[in-house]
Amino acid sequence: MPRKPFEPPSAEQTAFLERAIEQYGKATYNYAYRLTRNDADASDLTQEAFIRVFRAWRSFVPGSSFLSWIYRIVTNLYRDELRRRKGRYQEEIPEDNAPQEFGGARPLAVQPIDDYVEGQMSEPVAKALDALAPDQRAVVVLADIEEYSYQEIAEIVGCSIGTVRSRLHRARNQLRKLVLEHSTAS
Amino acid sequence: MINEHPNITVLIDYVHRELIAEEDAAVHTHLAACEPCKGAYEEQARITERLRAHAYAEERDLPYAVVARVRERVAGQARVAWWQHLNLVFRPVVGLPVAAAFVLAALLGYSSLKPHAGAPTIAAAYYLDAHSALTNMATPFAQPAAVPASLQDSGKSATQTTAMGPTTIASE
Q: Is the ipTM here above 0.85?
């Protein structure tokens, strides 16, 4: 049972948190960054995710994958944040207009200087990732970068394997087009 | 070897090693023999390679500020405000028995101080009068003892011993 917020933490709980940060802090932050595409939001997501881990540390099952658990937390937090900012979170985006509906899935925090530098220096892949819908980007990151199986992705994202497969295929199709476009443009 | 060309869905699953062993082997064999399919597969594999290369290139260290903020919030949680202590003490599992004990003690204290409304109260004077009257009566427990002759005519009060103990009676 999760500890109530006002209860003083035990030494065991604090040690659990410290170990989690030490071992998985970097991976969690990078996953958050790949979802949000900017440092400020990645920092906020990572911070909030570890606080959730701290509060719910008893619900972690020893022997299971901690990384999958915290990735699920990060994904849910990211989805909540998108809902909060956009009013609603769009689960499925038609592949032909995904970037337009999501405003090109721009980073959540506005960083004009970073945008300028990124525009000058980033690879077409980065642009293509930015342009993906958030749910598609999450699946691509988990499948292609983190190398999770469809089953694991379904558990992290909270959907069926069929949905994972269709999102991934749509995202890759989108990526292929976008990478080609950006490569041609640059 | 499969005769049909695998579609893009199968190729993407193949790239992600999501096909069952038999399908995986069949696609592998087909790709070795079919140049167009091999080209399509390589394109998909290249996307994955570029994604991984990009992720590796932009990999970041966890900013210390994030760790510091997490620790700060955890430490803030450890500092319990006075009203939170009250919450801790008066949470239902503790508060209810304590409250019940207080109510019980208050009820007992009140009832011990308050005169019993239902019980008869006897004024001391009335009790003495009644007792005296009883002792003058001839009852099995209060038979008048024989009064010594020397005292019978003295006109003074005499003490007679009854079953209830020595009693001073006034002579008439």
A: no
Is A101 near chain B, with CB under 8 Å? Answer: no
DSSP-derived pairing of the beta strands B158-162 and B165-169: antiparallel
Hey, are the CB atoms on A172 and B63 less than 8 Å from each other? no
Contact between residue B66 and residue A29 where contact means Cβ atoms under 8 Å apart: yes
Dist CA A67 CA A51 (whole Å)? 15
8 Å CB contact between A129 and A160: no
Each residue's pLDDT tens digit, A23-53? 999 999 999 999 999 999 999 999 999 999 9
Nearest CA to A49 among A70, A34, A79, A67?
A70
Segments in A58-123 forming alpha helices (H) = 66-86, 98-101, 112-121
Partners of A34 on chain B (C-beta within 8 Å) are 55
- Nearest 5°: phi and psi at B131? -65, -45
Q: Which residue, among B43, B46, B58, would best test binding to A if mutated, counting the most A CBs under 10 Å from its CB?
A: B58
Question: A54 at the B interface (CB within 8 A)?
Answer: yes
